[in-house]
Specification:
By secondary structure, the chain is mainly α. The protein contains seven helices and two strands. A two-stranded parallel sheet has the order 1-2. Keywords: Membrane, Transmembrane, Transmembrane helix.
Protein backbone atom coordinates (compact mmCIF):
# COMPACT_ATOMS: atom_id res chain seq x y z
CA UNK A 1 0.00 0.00 0.00
CA UNK A 2 1.46 3.40 -0.94
CA UNK A 3 2.35 5.81 1.79
CA UNK A 4 1.68 9.49 2.11
CA UNK A 5 3.83 11.52 -0.21
CA UNK A 6 4.05 8.93 -2.96
CA UNK A 7 1.60 10.78 -5.18
CA UNK A 8 -1.13 8.18 -4.91
CA UNK A 9 -4.80 8.82 -4.43
CA UNK A 10 -6.92 8.11 -1.38
CA UNK A 11 -10.19 6.25 -1.09
CA UNK A 12 -12.32 9.10 -2.43
CA UNK A 13 -10.05 10.00 -5.31
CA UNK A 14 -8.49 13.06 -3.69
CA UNK A 15 -4.72 13.40 -3.63
CA UNK A 16 -3.21 12.09 -0.43
CA UNK A 17 -0.52 14.72 -0.73
CA UNK A 18 -1.71 17.87 -2.43
CA UNK A 19 0.35 20.78 -1.08
CA UNK A 20 2.27 22.43 -3.87
CA UNK A 21 2.98 19.23 -5.82
CA UNK A 22 6.62 19.47 -4.82
CA UNK A 23 6.89 15.74 -4.22
CA UNK A 24 5.07 14.25 -7.19
CA UNK A 25 4.52 15.01 -10.82
CA UNK A 26 1.25 16.13 -12.29
CA UNK A 27 0.35 12.96 -14.10
CA UNK A 28 -1.69 9.80 -13.77
CA UNK A 29 -1.86 9.87 -9.98
CA UNK A 30 -2.83 13.52 -10.00
CA UNK A 31 -5.49 13.05 -12.64
CA UNK A 32 -7.72 11.40 -10.03
CA UNK A 33 -7.43 14.33 -7.63
CA UNK A 34 -10.88 15.72 -6.89
CA UNK A 35 -9.64 19.31 -7.07
CA UNK A 36 -7.85 18.77 -10.39
CA UNK A 37 -10.95 17.48 -12.16
CA UNK A 38 -11.77 19.69 -15.15
CA UNK A 39 -15.35 19.80 -13.89
CA UNK A 40 -14.52 20.79 -10.32
CA UNK A 41 -14.31 24.60 -10.62
CA UNK A 42 -17.31 24.96 -12.94
CA UNK A 43 -19.37 22.89 -10.49
CA UNK A 44 -18.25 24.98 -7.54
CA UNK A 45 -19.18 28.12 -9.44
CA UNK A 46 -22.58 26.63 -10.35
CA UNK A 47 -23.22 26.07 -6.63
CA UNK A 48 -22.00 29.55 -5.76
CA UNK A 49 -23.90 31.51 -8.42
CA UNK A 50 -27.51 30.48 -7.60
CA UNK A 51 -26.89 30.72 -3.86
CA UNK A 52 -25.60 34.27 -4.27
CA UNK A 53 -28.44 35.17 -6.61
CA UNK A 54 -30.98 33.88 -4.10
CA UNK A 55 -29.33 35.71 -1.20
CA UNK A 56 -29.13 38.96 -3.15
CA UNK A 57 -32.72 38.66 -4.38
CA UNK A 58 -34.04 38.01 -0.87
CA UNK A 59 -32.05 40.90 0.57
CA UNK A 60 -33.25 43.25 -2.17
CA UNK A 61 -36.88 42.14 -2.44
CA UNK A 62 -37.64 41.39 1.20
CA UNK A 63 -35.31 43.71 3.08
CA UNK A 64 -38.10 44.87 5.42
CA UNK A 65 -39.35 41.46 6.57
CA UNK A 66 -35.82 40.05 6.63
CA UNK A 67 -34.66 43.02 8.68
CA UNK A 68 -37.52 42.53 11.13
CA UNK A 69 -36.64 38.84 11.52
CA UNK A 70 -32.88 39.27 11.81
CA UNK A 71 -32.62 42.61 13.59
CA UNK A 72 -30.42 43.95 10.80
CA UNK A 73 -31.27 47.33 9.27
CA UNK A 74 -33.41 46.93 6.14
CA UNK A 75 -31.34 49.61 4.40
CA UNK A 76 -28.16 47.59 5.03
CA UNK A 77 -29.74 44.38 3.75
CA UNK A 78 -31.09 46.10 0.64
CA UNK A 79 -27.81 47.87 -0.14
CA UNK A 80 -25.66 44.78 0.40
CA UNK A 81 -28.03 42.73 -1.75
CA UNK A 82 -26.46 44.21 -4.88
CA UNK A 83 -23.08 42.56 -4.29
CA UNK A 84 -24.30 38.94 -4.33
CA UNK A 85 -26.40 39.65 -7.43
CA UNK A 86 -23.40 41.02 -9.34
CA UNK A 87 -21.17 38.27 -7.96
CA UNK A 88 -23.67 35.60 -9.08
CA UNK A 89 -23.67 36.97 -12.62
CA UNK A 90 -19.86 36.92 -12.81
CA UNK A 91 -19.67 33.41 -11.30
CA UNK A 92 -22.28 32.06 -13.74
CA UNK A 93 -20.56 33.57 -16.78
CA UNK A 94 -17.18 32.30 -15.59
CA UNK A 95 -18.59 28.79 -15.09
CA UNK A 96 -19.63 28.68 -18.75
CA UNK A 97 -16.22 29.66 -20.12
CA UNK A 98 -14.07 26.99 -21.69
CA UNK A 99 -10.90 28.83 -20.69
CA UNK A 100 -11.45 29.84 -17.08
CA UNK A 101 -9.48 33.00 -16.20
CA UNK A 102 -7.33 32.31 -13.14
CA UNK A 103 -7.42 35.95 -12.07
CA UNK A 104 -11.21 35.99 -12.15
CA UNK A 105 -11.50 32.80 -10.10
CA UNK A 106 -9.04 34.26 -7.60
CA UNK A 107 -11.15 37.43 -7.47
CA UNK A 108 -14.28 35.33 -6.80
CA UNK A 109 -12.50 33.48 -3.98
CA UNK A 110 -11.38 36.80 -2.49
CA UNK A 111 -14.96 38.07 -2.78
CA UNK A 112 -16.16 35.06 -0.80
CA UNK A 113 -13.51 35.65 1.84
CA UNK A 114 -14.49 39.31 2.04
CA UNK A 115 -18.15 38.37 2.47
CA UNK A 116 -17.12 35.96 5.25
CA UNK A 117 -15.13 38.63 7.08
CA UNK A 118 -17.97 41.14 6.69
CA UNK A 119 -20.56 38.71 8.05
CA UNK A 120 -18.44 37.77 11.05
CA UNK A 121 -17.56 41.41 11.77
CA UNK A 122 -21.21 42.44 11.60
CA UNK A 123 -22.28 39.52 13.80
CA UNK A 124 -19.79 40.37 16.55
CA UNK A 125 -19.22 44.11 16.17
CA UNK A 126 -22.60 45.13 14.77
CA UNK A 127 -25.76 46.06 16.65
CA UNK A 128 -25.61 44.97 20.30
CA UNK A 129 -29.25 43.85 20.35
CA UNK A 130 -28.91 41.52 17.36
CA UNK A 131 -31.22 38.53 17.95
CA UNK A 132 -30.15 34.93 17.48
CA UNK A 133 -31.84 34.82 14.08
CA UNK A 134 -29.67 37.71 12.89
CA UNK A 135 -26.50 36.09 14.14
CA UNK A 136 -27.55 32.79 12.53
CA UNK A 137 -28.24 34.55 9.20
CA UNK A 138 -24.81 36.17 9.21
CA UNK A 139 -22.89 33.12 10.42
CA UNK A 140 -24.58 30.80 7.90
CA UNK A 141 -23.71 33.15 5.05
CA UNK A 142 -20.17 33.57 6.33
CA UNK A 143 -19.61 29.84 6.75
CA UNK A 144 -21.00 28.99 3.31
CA UNK A 145 -18.93 31.72 1.65
CA UNK A 146 -15.80 30.48 3.44
CA UNK A 147 -16.33 26.90 2.25
CA UNK A 148 -16.81 28.13 -1.32
CA UNK A 149 -13.70 30.32 -1.11
CA UNK A 150 -11.69 27.32 0.06
CA UNK A 151 -13.07 25.12 -2.72
CA UNK A 152 -12.32 27.79 -5.32
CA UNK A 153 -8.79 28.22 -3.99
CA UNK A 154 -8.13 24.47 -3.94
CA UNK A 155 -9.51 24.08 -7.45
CA UNK A 156 -7.37 26.96 -8.66
CA UNK A 157 -4.22 25.51 -7.09
CA UNK A 158 -4.78 22.08 -8.61
CA UNK A 159 -5.84 23.02 -12.13
CA UNK A 160 -3.79 21.55 -14.92
CA UNK A 161 -1.74 23.93 -17.02
CA UNK A 162 -3.33 25.17 -20.25
CA UNK A 163 -3.24 22.53 -22.94
CA UNK A 164 -2.46 19.65 -20.52
CA UNK A 165 -5.09 17.38 -22.07
CA UNK A 166 -7.40 17.90 -25.00
CA UNK A 167 -11.04 18.59 -24.28
CA UNK A 168 -10.51 19.90 -20.75
CA UNK A 169 -11.13 23.44 -19.51
CA UNK A 170 -7.97 25.49 -19.58
CA UNK A 171 -6.94 28.14 -17.15
CA UNK A 172 -6.29 31.42 -18.92
Amino acid sequence: MPGIGEGRTGRWGACVRCGDHGGHRIGAAHSLCLFASPRFLPRVLWVDAPECAATGAVQRAAAGPLGAATGLPASLLSATGWFPLAYAAVAAVTATRRAMPRALILLLAIGNLGWTVGCIALAFAGPRDLPGCGIAWLMAQGAFARVLADLQWMGLRHQRPAGFAAGQPRMA
